[in-house]
Each structure stands twice: as C-alpha cells, then as structure tokens.
C-alpha cells in the first residue's frame, strides 16, 4: 500500500514536506502523539517515515458489507490499522492493551491525544490515555504536528484537494521519572498536558482548554462560545510560536 499502490499517488498529489523525522527512533517501540486535523493524517504520517506506523480504527471499518465495505476493510488492513471496539465501558482498556502490545513488539504506535479531529483547526486538551500508555510501556513519546491537512480536507470533505502538506516531528519525551505512577490521575494529567504543550510548540496552533469532543457537542447544539483559548496546557504561559511553513519547492527562488 505504501510503496506501490497508494503511497506514490499520495506523494504526487500532496508533496509532503517534513522537519525533524530524524527524531523518530530507528528501532524499538515508540509512541507517535499527533494533533488530529483530518482523516488523511493517518495516511500522510506513515508515508513520510521509513518505519511502519500502526493506528487504532473503530471496528465498524472492518465489518462493512457489499463492495464498499470490503474495499474499506481491505484498505484499512493494508495500511496497518488495528480494529478496536470502541463501544461499551471496556473500550479504553481494549485500546490501551492494543497499544501496549504494539509497543512490546517494538513497533511504532500512532495516537491522537485529542481523541477526535479538531472541529476548527485549533489544538484541544489531550486525554490521559496517551499518558497511561507511556507510563505503562516505558516507551518514549514523539510529538508530531500535522500541518495543512485540515485545509486539504475540511470536515465533511471526502476527497482531499491536492496541495502541499507538512509533518513536523519533535524530540522524544521521556517520562521514566513517573514510572510506577500510572494510576495517579494528577500525574497522568501532567504528562498529557506536557505532550500537548510539545505538539502546540511544533504546530503553532491556538490551544483550547476543553476536550475536542465537548467542543463538537457544543457546536452541534448551536453554541458558538464557551471554548476558552489562551495560555497553554498545564497552566504554562503561551509560548511564542509560529505556524510552520513549507520549504521552497525545488528550483524555486526567493526574493528579499
């Protein structure tokens, strides 16, 4: 899928640019914690890395019927998506166990701490599942910022429009100092906030201190206010960040 069928087409259409991919470990398990702007995120990030990245996907993607259902299931399996049943009270435990298994096998596990796509391109509060996964596995957390995917594929758009898309990767975060404290909710909150802070510095996004799912529910109910922005995760002062810009196209010239 990556090298022969889908990958070459995506490279031509979206000409992905990257910064910091050398921060992804060459071997061993690691957590890639990314902002989530569009469905295409899960295809572009693995495309720019030499190693395979595995994401979780709702089991509905694998149980569809008819030609469309079979094609969707085949595509998801082909790109390495792992089905997980997100219904019921044990959904988070199933996701955690799946992530731990991937990391124990020495592979890369991709996760979106926000839990769902951003409804407006801003960065929302991270859920603590990524923190628990990091502490229980001992794996490093590599922050990732997807750039421009929400412009290529706004919510509701099935086929992304061709344009340059960026991936910015930060230095791995080590949380070994908290080992054995994965059941402390205050530690989990602090770790999740630190991860979101790192993503914010890479992406240049405005931070909103509520969950993205809450923001979506408010929008669906017709509320446009209530999403307080400003500052940074964990009460840190807002850093002086800039939106990453792509490098110039090969052969292009710049004018002062």
From TrEMBL:
GO CC term, one of those recorded: plasma membrane
SUPFAM superfamilies: Glycerol-3-phosphate (1)-acyltransferase
GO MF terms, alphabetically ordered: 1-acylglycerol-3-phosphate O-acyltransferase activity
GO biological process: one example: phosphatidic acid biosynthetic process
Domain Phospholipid/glycerol acyltransferase per the UniProt entry, residue ranges: 30-149
Keywords, sorted A to Z: Acyltransferase, Transferase
Protein name, entry field: 1-acyl-sn-glycerol-3-phosphate acyltransferase
Biased composition (Gly residues): 223-234
InterPro entries: Plipid/glycerol_acylTrfase
């Amino acid at each position: 899928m990556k090298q022969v069928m889908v990958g070459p087409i995506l490279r031509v259409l979206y000409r992905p640019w990257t910064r910091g991919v050398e921060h992804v470990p060459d071997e061993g398990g690691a957590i890639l914690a990314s902002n989530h702007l569009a469905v295409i995120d899960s295809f572009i990030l693995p495309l720019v890395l030499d190693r395979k990245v595995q994401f979780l996907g709702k089991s509905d993607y694998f149980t569809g019927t008819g030609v469309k259902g079979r094609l969707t299931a085949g595509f998801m399996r082909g790109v390495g998506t792992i089905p997980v049943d997100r219904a019921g009270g044990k959904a988070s435990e199933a996701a955690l166990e799946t992530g731990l298994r991937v990391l124990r096998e020495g592979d890369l596990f991709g996760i979106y701490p926000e839990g769902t796509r951003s409804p407006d391109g801003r960065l929302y509060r991270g859920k603590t599942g990524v923190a628990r996964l990091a502490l229980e596995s001992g794996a490093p957390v590599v922050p990732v910022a997807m750039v421009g995917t929400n412009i290529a594929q706004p919510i509701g758009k099935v086929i992304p429009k061709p344009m340059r898309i960026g991936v910015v990767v930060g230095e791995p975060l080590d949380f070994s100092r908290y080992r054995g404290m994965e059941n402390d909710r205050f530690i989990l909150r602090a770790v999740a906030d630190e991860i979101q802070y790192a993503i914010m510095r890479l992406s240049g996004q405005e931070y909103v201190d509520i969950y993205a799912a809450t923001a979506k529910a408010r929008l669906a109910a017709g509320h446009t206010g209530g999403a307080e922005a400003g500052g940074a995760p964990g009460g840190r002062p807002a850093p002086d960040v800039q939106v990453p810009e792509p490098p110039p196209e090969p052969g292009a010239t710049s004018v002062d």
